[in-house]
Amino acid sequence: MVGNSLGTDRPTKYAGAIDCDLHPAVPGMGVLLPYLDDYWREMVSVRALDRLNLSLTGYPQNAPLACRPDWTLDGGAKPGSSLQSMQQHALDRYQPRYGILNCLYGAQVFHSEDMAAAFCRATNDWIRDEWLSRDPRLRASIVIPVHNTELAVAEIERRADDFRFVQVMMLVSGEVTLGRRQLWPIYRLAERLDLPIGIHAGSAYRYAPTPVGWPSHYVEDYIAQSAAFENQLQSMIAEGVFAKFPNLKVVAIESGLTWLSGFIWRADKTWKGVRAEVPWVTRAPSEIVRDHVRFTMQPIDAADESEAILRLIDHMKSDRLFLFATDYPHWQFDGDAVLPSGLSEALSHRILSENALATYPRLSKTDHAMEIAL
Amino acid sequence: MSIIDVERSQSAKYKLQVIDCDIHPAMTSWKEIHPYLEKRWIEHLSVYGSHLRHAFSEALSHPRMSPDAARVDAYPEEGGPPGSSLDLMRKQHLDPNGVEIGMLIPLRWNPGSQRNLDLGVALTRAMNTWQVERWVKQEPRLRASVLVAQEDTVGAVAEIDARGGDPNFTQILILPRTDEPLGRRRYWPIFEAAVRNNLPITIHVGGTNGHPSTGGGWSSYYMEEHHMVAQAMQASLASLIFEGVFERLPELRIVIMEGGLGWIPSFSARMDKHWNRLRSEVPQVKRPPSEYVREHVWFTTQPMEEPGSSAALIDLFDRIGWDRLLFATDYPHWDFDDPRTAFKANLSESQRHQLLYGNARTFYGFGK
């Protein structure tokens, strides 16, 4: 937890890792203007959209969780909005081989499907030009308007040949549960293009974040994210997504992790009792999770993180599920304790890079593609 | 999910002694509560029925996988739904399973979810009297629960105060799908009444509030709906803690009923971790959330977790706290837990006795 590892972890012990969760921030809508078409550029001007602060309710800009104190930027700039600072705080310090950018901007949550699509496209273009092209270690997730499958598919197709885009990203809470068949064209394409579906904590707030309504506090919203992950896995399993798309991978990003034991116990038992309702689910949910779902390792919801990881590996009967991540610039750990201490060399190696390479096939392809480009 | 064809002999290696915290009584016909319901509401129900925030007035939106969500062997020969025959309940459950005390959890009509608040309150009043007259007075092993319509705080408090001195009642019953998270200020008078009357608040799965069952929309299948029951419990618990309810009312006791167990340690750790980071938002929370859970909350055991190894189950109990676990069967529902086979773990006799009997006896103050 807090402070106990300050000074005891050398940042270089993570060298060569794959950091599966870095958050670049759009500093303001102005940077996206070059990537909008004439109509949307005009709308930004006429409607003064660029004066809107699109910070997500799920990540209040100044909340302690949104930015580690020593990672704040000068002049109150948005945490994560400077590539130079990300390099200084995370990329140069921990020396990952790759870092995967997950941009949490308002683009994908506009109610207007057209507006969402235009801003997602612009965000992806901006990420490509201002981040991926400026640091060869960086890779990115494709931001999509999840609530319009056709437009989402078009945006993924637009990125298909750029192997630096290694994943499709969705917020864990959107308009419909993620197993629903209306989303399947997204999964079909993602499977074909070797793009895992990265489900990131966060909500479009179409509905109350809990089944008992709207809590008073941000801390309750954030805590409820782990329940949202459980429900979305249960949705994808029950609807048969993984039976339909046997090569599809899902990555749960910033989920908290330790809820997984309780999830598989409950899901397996429920499935045994009600499987007649979902005859296409022919394997226990725990097996499906083991084959298809991966988890980033910040935050780890436990007082003793290494004990929790070992317990989870025991319950899941697998050490291939967990992926190294800093969650930069979110404040999840202090000092250089990105991974809990006390894990074996072999396990650390799996977590740092092996598991991610197996999860993101396009990471391996980029090496090759870049050689060709050079 | 134990199918009940095992021999029920009391000559097993030890005599069962059980307190069952979750038994669902049913009505043979809804006319059973007419004597306790004003004529106005009898007519109202006949004409308009239930008025809830979902599509069917008399059915669940996610149909269950067995009729009446019941065990197939729980239908009385004389007719009526499972749970409606005291005779069968004795023969099938109370006698052979060594149930010394059984807690009634009536679920009919969802009074707390009725959009017509006056109807909700009238139903709780009638169903509370019905529990005593139809069940507890006929069978001394049974105890009633004070059903309340929590969305009408005034009506709920009046009902609690009316039943508080009646030893037939052992707890206050609220279904978790409340209109707002349970810790919100509008519900505080109910908790104050609970403390005043020295009754725990029991939160049993159920209710409808119009909110989708997940923050990302409605689930398609009962398989999903059944899973998220635990999440509704988590959100209710988090709300009670983060609104500071336990700081205001240090004597308040909560029972989470049928919400599962596997999530409790990780959820407590999650609350601690993020409270630690975000505590400036909630100065009313003075201690790590897990401490409030450990001191104020008990959990019933059905549906029992089956992690696949005895060691994992015992580790889970260790982390929750053995003294917090109250045995329940959920009779006559389909996922009934048999006291002989529910715990798939190597328990000592004293551990088994503590779970099946001792904890509930202490918690509810039986035998004092």
Number of helices of chain B: 11
Instruction: Tally the structural domains of chain B.
Output: 1
For this structure, what is the CATH class of chain B?
Answer: Alpha Beta
Distance between the termini of chain B: 34 Å
Element-by-element helix/strand order of chain A:
EHHEHEHEHEHHHEHHEHEHH
Classified in CATH, the superfamily of chain A is Metal-dependent hydrolases
Q: Helices and strands of chain A: which structural class?
A: alpha/beta
Sheet of most strands of chain B: 8 strands, parallel
The quaternary organization reads as heterodimer
Reading off the top of the CATH hierarchy, the class of chain A is best stated as: Alpha Beta
The radius of gyration computed from the alpha-carbon positions of chain A, rounded to a whole number of angstroms, is: 20 Å
Short description:
Chain A has helices at 38-46, 83-94, 113-132, 149-158, 184-192, 218-223, 225-239, 241-244, 260-274, 285-292, 305-316, 345-359, 361-373, and strands at 18-22, 98-101, 138-143, 165-173, 197-203, 250-253, 293-296, 322-323. Chain A is an alpha/beta fold and 374 residues long. Chain A has a single domain, classed as Metal-dependent hydrolases (TIM Barrel, Alpha-Beta Barrel).
